[in-house]
Amino acid sequence: MKYSDRILNTPSSFIRDILKVLDAPDIISFAGGLPNPVSFPIEALKEAIDGAIRKNGSKLFQYSTTEGYSPLRELIAEKYRRKFGLDIQSEDILITNGSQQALELIGTVLLNKGDKVLMEEPGYLGAIQAFSLCEPEFLSVPLEEDGLNLEKLEEVLKNHPVKLIYSVPNFQNPTGLTYSMEKRKAIRELVSKYDLAFIEDDPYGELRFQGESLPYIGAGYLENSILLGSFSKTVTPGMRLGFLITKNAQLMRYLVTAKQGSDLHTNIFTQYAIHEYLLNNPYEEHVKRIVELYRTQATAMLDAMGTYFPASVSYTRPEGGMFIWATLPEGQSALKLFPKAMEQKVAFVPGDPFYVSRREVNTLRLNYTNATPEVITEGIRRLGSIL
Amino acid sequence: MKYSDRILNTPSSFIRDILKVLDAPDIISFAGGLPNPVSFPIEALKEAIDGAIRKNGSKLFQYSTTEGYSPLRELIAEKYRRKFGLDIQSEDILITNGSQQALELIGTVLLNKGDKVLMEEPGYLGAIQAFSLCEPEFLSVPLEEDGLNLEKLEEVLKNHPVKLIYSVPNFQNPTGLTYSMEKRKAIRELVSKYDLAFIEDDPYGELRFQGESLPYIGAGYLENSILLGSFSKTVTPGMRLGFLITKNAQLMRYLVTAKQGSDLHTNIFTQYAIHEYLLNNPYEEHVKRIVELYRTQATAMLDAMGTYFPASVSYTRPEGGMFIWATLPEGQSALKLFPKAMEQKVAFVPGDPFYVSRREVNTLRLNYTNATPEVITEGIRRLGSIL
């Protein structure tokens, strides 16, 4: 049988593939991107489910609307009005199966084969994978400590008809880096001159353990702004609840048509459950506890890296989120380091899958949210021993 | 902003659009395709959720595998081995967000722009919508009382490089028709000579209230057979749990890559819940009760049609499922009938969206699963008054 060109050109998820070999219990894995399970509000969600069924009965179990559960959309809209002063209404929100589905839908409605997609370098591999299904041409702009390189960004925009830009402005995956206020403003001004969609993917924004929350680049400012959010990192990823926000009503209509064709609608049972949970629980306090936990874990990893890594290895110092990005000396390959690390029973993600056009890179991603400080220290010690 | 060619060519769901105007409580609607909510095992599902959390804790809330929850896949595989004698193993099963997502994934991995897709005429509009996202060329073969017209099918296969065939062999949507044993064998033999994927979508197969269950056309026989199933019509549609079965391992690998890019994985919370429900409850007895309910409703509708419809209107007599298909006299338009029906406060789906190349057709779809026999009789009386 002949397969489609698009699937032949779509990478399988490197991470999900290597996660499969990490099942052995004595391996210390910094390879995943999983929230810490102690952060799941299991009892509160159980109560929320009971309450939602008591109030709404069979509505949790029936087919529902493609756009999502209206009271949940209104609750999300209200949060963005309150916290960011953005004019977001419930009709500006589409509920998706995690942010990942939002990426796929955006590709579906915007990208013809060969259209130009601008990625951060390095960039989120799930976005590379989702957009690949539409066979675009990827361009990339280096991500620096404080955001995209502006000169390179301007050069690319001037010389290529870029259709969409994908960015993760807060605690980026894979680097953990955050865009500065200055870069946000400069990027907004530059991008406003072009007819393109600006995607801000913000699954980690609430997980800030240092510094001040910053305004979005596009949301509230750019006509074709698309903001993505998720309950995966703050409530539960298993229920696959994300959302997309745009004020462009025509774009929203096309996204809804694409979602109809894709899966009719997102699981309505868990939409009711999360809505009821948000109504009856102190969400902000809950998130604060996750932030404290991740701060402790990030600190443990950074301290251990200071102790066990040679000075030739540099790394980012995230203000939030779930990842640290390390850079080996020029010319070394993180991919070649991986089997040696496995011998030491410690795992990470080699940087390769986060680039659209570079291979055998000297960078790697470390996740700190899924181990105790003690285990983190031991894992970094093992890794340091082979650097 | 410029949108993709594929979304500009994808129809919005006519049904979901007209359902929005049907909110008034005094309208009798035969337009939906909703299971009867009394069929949802709400209490048993609540207990299943409690049990699944008690046994598995945070696993219900964490990220999970793209393929789906293994014990659920095994339970599904076992059913197809037991009930149909098919050699299905858990690795042949992919859990999807309802069958609708399976259709989208199949299109993604198989269809290049312009590839030929063969549909039943009339055919399921959700499939037309899902495949449209890949911009194929649709061909169609008339669906007769006992299945596809064989001469026409052979002619199309001889003259066009068909990439996939989409069929609903049991109680088809929209017609309620079922393929006969003879047609199943003949189609299998014919199709086996061609290099194409044969999709059997079977969401209604268990809802048979008359006659004997028949073997599948492709599953167990054809190399590129894809069988789709769902818990939407027998347990709950709100949890969006469907599944795809194929023995073609290469095809399965590509489908998994496509699903990774689409949404990482299906809601694992509800996969655990449905699995626990299936383990601890008499599923077959539960389905029997739904069948009895739908038999009563179908009978009420057919009886009322016998009483109130003029002899010039013909209609199908389904052996199961959820739909009856009516044909008005030649030259009449069901679409033009619709506003008149709304004046009588009764709704149906005009046939148009179920055809890939015909408009202003004289056919319409009636759903009987969501009203009492009394209401069904009254609705058909109203409809009869304008025929």
From TrEMBL, chains A, B:
InterPro entries in alphabetical order: Aminotransferase_I/II_large, Class-I_PLP-dep_aminotransf, PyrdxlP-dep_Trfase, PyrdxlP-dep_Trfase_major, PyrdxlP-dep_Trfase_small
Cofactors (names): pyridoxal 5'-phosphate
One MF annotation (Gene Ontology) recorded for this entry: pyridoxal phosphate binding
A Pfam match: Aminotran_1_2
GO terms under biological process: alpha-amino acid metabolic process
Domain spans labelled Aminotransferase class I/classII large: 42-383
Superkingdom of origin: Bacteria
Alphabetic keyword roster: Aminotransferase, Pyridoxal phosphate, Transferase
Keyword Iron-sulfur included in the entry's annotation: no
Family indicated by similarity: Belongs to the class-I pyridoxal-phosphate-dependent aminotransferase family.
Subunit composition and interactions: Homodimer.
Record protein name field: Aminotransferase class I/classII large domain-containing protein
Originating species: Oxalobacter paraformigenes
